[in-house]
Description:
By secondary structure, the protein is an alpha/beta fold.
Amino acid sequence: MKFTTIRWNEADRTCTLLDQTRLPGEVVYETYRDYREMETAIKTLKVRGAPAIGVAAAFGVVLGVQDSRAGSYAAFKEELNTVVAVLAATRPTAVNLFWALERMRRVADENAANGIEAVKTVLTREALAIRAEDEAMCRHIGIHGAVLIETGQTVLTHCNAGALATAGTGTALSVIYQAHREGKNIRVFADETRPVLQGARLTAWELVQEGIDVTLICDNMAAQVMKEGKIDCVVVGADRIAANGDVANKIGTYGVAVLARAHDIPVYVAAPSTTIDMTIRTGVSIPIEERHASEVTEGLGRRTAPDGVRVYNPAFDVTPAAYVSAIVTERGVARFPYDKSLAALMSG
Ligand code: MRU
């Protein structure tokens, strides 16, 4: 890719993020040394997308404890728990965040006997491993997913499940990049994705950079575009997938899936196994983040709704498993019924 979403700088032990709130107008990298800055970056969507949030949080843990002067492991653990709790409270829906934080906490405990400085080293190594594994998962999702796309087809995607949302080439967009690399002639329609416009600002930017044929539409145009026969399949990412295959993803995904069903168009969900939450039986139990009203009442650089209006702003929705044609992971492709296929995939 022509940009780096998350970078660890070993020389001065800082973490650099591409500030996604300033895209597509400005490409600005910000470097952090304080985990509180990472907390703010996740909350304000400077870094966003389920896998990227997990990787950023892992580096946030490193930033949070690397200067610890704790005299015992118990005192160090208390500091670590505070850092983990602060980062865990940033965004509730993407399970990758909690998965990464738990992995960091576990590796600290496993190495407690070696002393605090050794634990700090191990935590850095673990965050780098989470980053590297995410990169590899993206690559394999692309390889498995590209099989589902035929040359000449047009793919509709929603939100941004690209390189900006991961430490690699993305999930949904990795499928597209891989198909393109294999020489398949494919086109993409990108929903703009109100209210924060991840489709317009981020997906369209990424695809234009990579030379993929992309057409931007407003969210409310998807039905008409499908009716006109312009879409062959839908490929989206996920923030959390329940054990039964219900998929939480960016608000509007459920609507796209219902439209796709009405037009007999397959819906593929591309996500790493770190997005699958086997502890949650169905999508009903997935916590849905509600974000600030200003995301809805402001647009185009000005206020677009009257003062005092009540706003409801859920950032995600849950697409029932029955609307999902396949779930593409780095381990392979799962099909309905997902309670069986996901269990097999996760235990394999
Ligand atoms: O609010 P965001 O921008 O973090 O939401 C992102 C999405 O919904 C993505 O589709 C999802 O995280 C998958 S990213 C590979």
